[in-house]
Amino acid sequence: MARKKILILGSTGSIGIQALEVIRLQPDDFEIVGLSSYRNEKLLRAQAAEFRVKETILAEGTNLASFIAGIKADLALVAISGSAGLIPTLAAIESGKNIALANKESLVMKGREIMTAAKLHKTQLIPVDSEHSALFQLLQKVPKKEVLKIILTCSGGPFWRKTKEELEKITVKDALKHPTWKMGKEITINSATLVNKGFEIIEAHHLFGFDYEQIEVLIHPQSLVHAMVQLKDGNTLMHYSPPNMQIPISYALNYPNRHKFLLENVGKRSPGPFLPPTALDFFPPQKTLLKGIELGYQIGRLGGDNPEKFVRTNEKAVRKFLEGKISFLEIYTPSFFTPRNNEA
Ligand SMILES: NC(=O)c1ccc[n+]([C@@H]2O[C@H](COP(=O)([O-])OP(=O)(O)OC[C@H]3O[C@@H](n4cnc5c(N)ncnc54)[C@H](OP(=O)(O)O)[C@@H]3O)[C@@H](O)[C@H]2O)c1
Containing H/E element for 125? Predict the structure, then answer.
């Protein structure tokens, strides 16, 4: 059988590198036809040499969009971080490629446009975010009309139990230490502020078409259950897997198949055991100090250009925090998010 042709956008980042680890295990199944990064030329060259990739580019925006349009691929993995993922995601959809979407910001910013374009160009969007990959799998089991609620879990990040006094003293180093996931800097800070979960609420709304009232979040520090689907008849389906991004990446790359050897391989490297620890804890999210979840609901419901503004202003604030110019709690400074009530 012909190998699946894969284009990886953002191959030098955390998701890109993990995708290459998955592909390394399946040389007979995948052929990498293109790689992109932004600044890391050295790693991009090394990846291209190892996987014999002819088409590579260091670019963003419209230059990257032209590169994408010129490449023939069955699937594009969009693993670019932040708002920079929007143009490449749309370019990949418009050129008719199926999408493995790690870049949640593009869906937050232009969810409606992306879902409409995917429908128009008959491309499949397979989420890579672990919670959305879990929901994508669970929702295949039941008709949508039977679903009462979808529940996203959230590790809580490193600070969800901290007091205001403690949060005021958080350093960049503290915020970059995530308890269960090893990720790029921006998403790690967004996980600490819970803005990442706010983004994921909006992402789930667009991907699966549920109202915000039907989307819940539960803090689950073990990061083993990634999502749940509560049905009208009293049953709840849960998705469980070790906290290792190679699992949802492998799922998205192999979809609709599953790769049988990956699980064994991941087991050796995963931080947690396969069997659940003695307890799986779930708590309602704390909404007062870490405002990311609340902002996600509020801004998602307002719609219009507010979600895009949310992504862009948060991105600037996170950069300032990483540069030591503002404190952790100043990431939420209200002037960054003054929503406009211009559309329901
Ligand atoms: N990491 C995770 O575990 C995880 C889990 C779920 C979802 N996600 C989502 O996946 C996406 C990627 O996250 P990540 O953690 O892998 O990020 P990351 O480690 O920061 O990597 C970002 C990648 O995007 C490239 N890039 C950065 N700015 C760019 C620009 N302006 N134009 C084009 N390319 C650019 C980078 O290239 P250079 O290396 O050359 O700068 C790098 O290849 C994010 O949307 C994140 O929310 C990540």
Answer: strand 125-127
Beta carbons of 204 and 307 less than 8 angstroms apart: no
Bridge partner list, 6: 32, 75
Biggest CA-to-CA distance, the chain: 60
187 lines ligand 1 (CB under 6 A): yes
Beta bridge pairs of residue 304:
none
CB-ligand 1 contact for 245 (6 Å cutoff): yes
Domain ranges of the chain: 4-128, 133-239+278-336
Structure tokens at 177: 């230490």
pTM beyond 0.85 = yes
The sign of the CA dihedral 78, 80, 86, 88 is: negative
**Strands across the sheet containing 225-231:** 215-219, 147-154, 225-231, 236-240
Residue 256 Cα to ligand 1 middle (Å): 25
With a 6 Å cutoff on the Cβ, whether 303 touches ligand 1 is: no
Output the tens digit of pLDDT for each of the chain's 344 residues.
899 999 999 999 999 999 999 999 999 999 999 999 999 999 999 999 999 999 999 999 999 999 999 999 999 999 999 999 999 999 999 999 999 999 999 999 999 999 999 999 999 999 999 999 999 999 999 999 999 999 999 999 899 989 999 999 999 999 998 877 778 999 999 999 999 999 999 999 999 999 999 999 999 999 999 999 999 999 999 999 888 899 999 999 999 999 876 656 655 555 455 566 668 999 998 767 899 999 999 999 999 999 999 999 999 999 999 999 999 999 987 555 565 554 43
- Sheet with 125-127, strands from edge to edge, namely 56-58, 30-37, 4-9, 75-78, 98-101, 125-127
Q: Which residues contact 24 (CB under 8 A, 6 or more apart)?
A: none
Which uninterrupted H or E stretch holds 226? strand 225-231
Superfamily (CATH H level) for 4-128: NAD(P)-binding Rossmann-like Domain (3.40.50.720)
Residue 65 CB less than 6 A away from ligand 1: no
Query: Is residue 136 within 8 Å of residue 219, measured between CB atoms?
Result: no
Q: 75 and 19 in contact (C-beta within 8 Å)?
A: no
